[in-house]
Prior knowledge:
The chain is of the alpha+beta class and 161 residues long. It has two domains: 2-86 and 141-159, SH3 type barrels (Roll), CATH 2.30.30; 88-139. It has three helices and nine strands. It has helices spanning 2-16, 87-113, 121-139; strands at residues 18-26, 32-36, 40-45, 50-59, 63-67, 71-75, 79-85, 142-146, 151-159. The strands form two sheets. It has a six-stranded antiparallel β-sheet, with no helix packed on it. The protein has a three-stranded antiparallel β-sheet with strand order 2-1-9. A hairpin with a 5-residue loop joins strand 1 (18-26) and strand 2 (32-36). Helix 2 (87-113) runs antiparallel to helix 3 (121-139). The longest helix is centred in the middle third of the chain and has 27 residues, at 87-113. The radius of gyration is 24 Å and the shape is elongated. The protein starts with a helix and ends with a strand. 11% of the residues are buried. The model has no long low-confidence stretch (mean pLDDT 87).
Amino acid sequence: MKPLFILLLIFISFQDSSQKTLMVEKIGTLRKYYFHIGEPIKIRVSKPDTLLRGKLWGLADSMISVSGLRPFDVGLKDVHSVFKQFPFPRKAGKTLLIGSAAFFGIIVVNHLLNNEPVFTPDLFIITGAIMGSGLISLSLSQKRCRIGSTWKLKVLNISVY
């Protein structure tokens, strides 16, 4: 009797649990991005024209709470754009920039040890190419989704049964 009662309690608790999710979708395509509570988010608000960066603190039917130092409530109609962050290009860009600086240092030390001219064209070509690829990768690490005619913002209430 006790295991049946415990299973019944577990089943009832699963029916009441629901999770709110923020969805940004492109109209007419299958492209959708989901943001859950506790994940980092970056949005631009149109009325005070501010850029909010922080964690998604809370979701209501028509309000979003973004927490940087303190929670900041924003209406869904006031959101001008949402930025989707892609972690791999960001990490690759940072790694390439650090690698470019390290490679620059290694080549300079090598030229000093061999009594050669320190600043040669190959130094700037090689390290500049690595740095340029890192900067391009960093610029591709986020996508701006302008809310309006092409992108729309929804709050989904996902229930677990």
